[in-house]
Amino acid sequence: QHAIQRCSQWRCYASASSAGLSQDKITERVMTVIKLFEKISAEKLTIESHFMKELGLDSLDHVELLMAIEDEFGFEIPDQDAEKLNKPSDIIKYLCEKMEVDYK
User: Is the distance from CB of 12 to CB of 29 less than 8 angstroms?
Assistant: First the structure.
């Protein structure tokens, strides 16, 4: 529960609705949440950074980060999907697909 409370402080926008969202807006929100995650160095972060191999997160950190993404966008990411989301670009593509936003 502590992680959920901490994650809720990261919400960048009041609305989690997909109405009016674009890939650019989703990218901006995802990258902001990731930059605010205390265990990630913003200087090392790119859209293609691997969370574990390049940014040094362990599996628990990865779960906490995805919880923050879930909180930001207002829906749960199933475990079988979460384990495939290893880079910001993976998360952005996944969210675009789930929210029916065009992904380029």
Answer: yes
